[in-house]
């Protein structure tokens, strides 16, 4: 009984951790959080490469409840691939999402600092259009 409770605990931690990382990426506009998340995901990726599975997956495997990878596999409707490949897809998805978010934030900060002059010129042109000059 305690083994099942321990498995349920690790399933919850794994699922909530994945959802937390996904929400942090979608909501956060702080570049430091995104870079820390990128470092964390790189560590997870290297551990996946060394162990051929995520660190928490062996702790949550049981015969009563599906592990979080099986849940993600059924939600994403990719039942044709194995659980290890599904974990790899999810890890690579988060890594790609983090990199895209970091590039977007860097581009946004650059445009916010350096493109203000161009935006003022565009606003002047719109003012002329409104005044029909």
Characterize the main sheet.
Answer: none
The number of helical elements comes to: 6
Find the structural class using helix and strand composition: mainly alpha
End-to-end C-alpha gap? 80 Å
Percent in helix: over 70%
Strand content: under 5%
Shape: elongated
Radius of gyration: 22 Å
Number of β-strand runs: 0
Order of helices and strands: HHHHHH
Q: What's the structural domain tally?
A: 1
**Average pLDDT:** 77
Unreliable spans: none
In short:
Keywords: Membrane, Transmembrane, Transmembrane helix. This protein has 133 residues and is an all-alpha fold.
Walk me through the structure.
The chain crosses the membrane at residues 6-26, 33-49, 89-108. Keywords: Membrane, Transmembrane, Transmembrane helix. With 133 residues, this protein is mainly alpha-helical. It has one domain (2-101). The chain is built from six helices and no strands. It has helices at 2-27, 31-51, 57-60, 68-76, 83-114, 116-131. Helix 1 (2-27) runs parallel beside helix 5 and helix 2 packs antiparallel against helix 5. The longest helix has 32 residues, at 83-114. The N and C termini lie far apart (80 Å). The mean pLDDT is 77.
Which labels suit this protein?
6 helices, transmembrane helix, about 130 residues, transmembrane, membrane, mainly alpha
List the helices and strands and how they pair.
Layout (H helix, E strand, L loop, with lengths): L1 H26 L3 H21 L5 H4 L7 H9 L6 H32 L1 H16 L2
Keywords: Membrane, Transmembrane, Transmembrane helix
